[in-house]
Write a structure and sequence with these properties.
The complex is a heterodimer of chains A (about 325) and B (about 325). By secondary structure, chain A is an alpha/beta fold. In chain A, about 30% of the residues lie in helices and about 25% in strands. Classes of the chains: A alpha/beta (about 325), B alpha/beta (about 325). Chains A and B meet through helix 5, helix 6, helix 7 and helix 9 of A and helix 6, helix 7, helix 8 and helix 10 of B.
Chain lengths: ~325, ~325
């Protein structure tokens, strides 16, 4: 069952030189009970995509498509309605989560403020829940009485995770939450997210990262974005063992792995740089860097086609409507 | 003397607060060597002191104690003039944020002109232009595409290549690359890293590759040094350190690296505790987190011992 259905979503940024088409006609589902990974390079639109589900602040604007979450289109919610479902149904851990908490308030006051806004009346009950959750992420109950600045980066990250998930949101969005962390701290965060799912605190997670190897550890399915478009969606294991889109293939080949050394096997990156999203050319957005480019790729945009079981990719090499 | 760079008992103490502040030994009795033509990765997490070591070698910081021997000569006493005229011709650096390394008001070419006026004043204008173009081509850039441009007109990957081209223009003997590819996307990162390898192969340039990314360190380096909270916990031949990690910290670190060939078991890794006091620990600084810690670990600092050929570890489990 789908918890979130995104259909042909377009999220642009207004600029004096015309709209920057950061997310340009993206469709996918997030199912109940899964971790859905979104990966791509800087500027691919992954962060814009998930933030647009929560709040669209100018210059960001909704240019088309829908995002149906539990029967409601997130693009059409009033501010009031959006505030209501925030934390209780849909919650986000932002990229710089360790600096996301108000530094002038104690953790327990931050939590009480947001619980009260959602109709909670018993403060001791909320604080009891907070202490229980702090213990779950291996923080001492004392943390409830501390200010965010008193905590180290890794501890603050865990406190933010507790705050974001306290009211049991159905869908949790984690946007590059581990990018600024050390690998050992990152591993702890991944384990905790996994634990939140197991305990039923959250039903589904959208995990956004630039690190494909990390998605391999946590995501059931993964979507690869390139320059505002979906390149490929597949169960993560299948994506890694048999990528269909040339971009996914080249990206996987460029990843360093323990066992591969410069002296013996030289890895290669992808030549060139992503196109500008201000006036993207017609056709496939990857054609400027693709080693398999054909005439058709410059003219026609490839549709997303099914290439295997639950496996979709958008590339003319893989067929499509016109074949 | 086979080494190019020899660091001996290097220590850097930072004091926090003017009066009654506390001291942090960010680098604590660190010794290692870099041979000519060798790529050494200096790996550690935030707070390990890896960047401080790089800055000390570049004399951007002055050590509290210890010696830094470059070609046999202690550089810790070099005057500013000597550093500029001589040392920086042989030792160059590339840092993490390429955007921060350029003046946004000037075209990128200026970065090269400064190198010529400092180190190669004898080169004529025509030859200079040709050298710049060649340096750019060497790092995979088309001079026509980048010359005359302002930093904001280029991507991070292009700027980082320009900085590498500039650093290598004087054919330095040692290049210090501090997280030089961390900000780049996966698809461009590996090619920039390959450049460092290519240069070593071509010109014998040694590289001290400072990174938090173990997979990148493994890929490019001959030797690896693992630091934790200002101390070296393990070092040696890269293959040996990665395939036979001995220090409990190195083992945990390697287990935490997401690698697409390795599956993770979810079994509850112990997160860090509050560690403000860790720099004051007399013994092993990893002891408070170490699952195998004994009493002695908190009291006595383990020495680095060579447990097999070219593989050193500082841990009481191995007689340190």
């Amino acid at each position: 069952m789908s918890l979130l259905e995104i259909r042909d979503l377009k999220i642009y940024y207004r600029t004096p030189r015309g709209p920057v088409k950061a997310v340009d006609g993206v469709s996918f589902d997030v199912r109940e009970g899964e971790v859905f990974g979104i990966a791509g390079e800087s500027g691919c639109g992954k962060s814009t995509l998930v933030h647009s589900l929560i709040l669209r602040k100018p210059p960001m604007f909704h240019a088309g498509g829908e995002a149906i979450f539990k029967g409601k289109d997130l693009m059409k919610l009033s501010e009031e309605e959006a505030r209501k479902i925030r934390y209780t149904e849909l919650s986000i851990i932002p990229q710089y989560a360790m600096n996301a908490l108000n530094p002038t308030k104690k953790i327990k006051d931050i939590v009480w403020d947001l619980a009260r806004e959602h109709g909670y009346e018993d403060r001791s009950e909320v604080e009891g829940l907070l202490r229980e959750r702090l213990a779950m992420v291996k923080l001492s109950p004392k943390v409830a009485d501390m200010y965010p600045v008193e905590l180290s980066g890794g501890m603050r990250q865990r406190a933010t995770m507790v705050v974001s998930t306290l009211l049991n949101p159905d869908l949790l969005i984690a946007d590059e939450v581990t990018s600024a962390l050390d690998v050992t701290t990152q591993r702890v965060v991944i384990e905790l997210l996994h634990h939140f799912m197991e305990e039923g605190i959250v039903k589904s997670i959208i995990f956004v990262t630039h690190d494909l190897a990390l998605l391999d550890k946590i995501a059931d399915r993964t979507m690869i974005l390139y320059a505002g478009k979906v390149a490929e969606i597949a169960p993560t294991e299948e994506m890694i063992s048999s990528p269909a889109h040339p971009y996914t293939k080249l990206l996987l080949e460029s990843l360093p792995k323990i066992g591969v050394r410069y002296k013996e096997t030289k890895l290669n990156g992808i030549p060139g740089y992503p196109i500008s999203l201000l006036n993207p050319p017609k056709g496939c957005r990857f054609y400027t860097r693709c080693p398999y480019v054909m005439d058709r790729c410059r003219e026609e945009e490839p549709p997303l086609v099914e290439v295997g079981d639950d496996h979709y990719a958008a590339c003319h090499l893989l067929g499509g409507e016109n074949q | 003397m086979s080494e190019l760079l020899k660091v001996e008992h290097l220590t850097k103490v930072f004091t926090s607060g003017l009066i009654g502040g506390y001291e942090i030994k960010a680098v604590d009795d660190v010794s290692f060597e870099v041979k000519p033509g060798e790529i050494v990765s200096l790996v550690g997490e935030s707070g390990s002191g890896k960047t401080t070591v790089g800055k000390l070698i570049l004399r951007l910081l002055t050590p509290t104690s210890g010696r830094i021997l470059f070609e046999g000569e202690d550089i810790t006493g070099f005057s500013k003039k000597r550093l500029k005229s001589d040392y920086y011709r042989k030792v160059q650096a590339v840092f993490q944020d390429p955007f921060a390394s350029f003046n946004p008001l000037h075209i990128v070419d200026r970065a090269f002109y400064l190198v010529f006026s400092s180190f190669l004043p004898e080169v004529g204008a025509e030859e200079r232009e040709e050298m710049i173009n060649e340096a750019l081509r060497n790092v995979g850039l088309n001079p026509a595409e980048v010359r005359g441009k302002y930093p904001h007109q280029l991507s991070g990957g292009q700027l980082q290549r320009i900085l590498i081209a500039r650093a290598l223009l004087v054919k330095p003997k040692l290049l210090i690359a501090d997280e030089a590819v961390s900000m780049l996307d996966a698809s461009t990162r590996i090619d920039v890293l390959n450049l460092l390898g290519d240069f070593r192969d071509k010109y014998g340039t040694s590289v001290l590759f400072v990174t938090h990314d173990l997979a990148l360190g493994y890929y490019i380096s001959d030797s690896t040094i693992i630091m934790y909270r200002g101390t070296i916990v393990e070092m040696g031949d890269t293959e040996r350190v990665f395939h036979n990690p001995l220090h409990p910290y190195t083992q945990m670190l390697l287990e935490s690296v997401p690698d697409i060939n390795v599956k993770w078991e979810f079994r509850g890794i112990e997160p860090e505790k509050e560690e403000g006091t860790v720099y004051a620990i007399e013994g092993c600084r990893y002891a408070p987190r170490c699952p195998k810690a004994k009493d002695v670990c908190f009291k006595v600092r383990p020495r680095l011992v060579e447990v097999e050929k070219n593989h050193w570890v500082a841990c009481h489990l191995y007689g340190g």
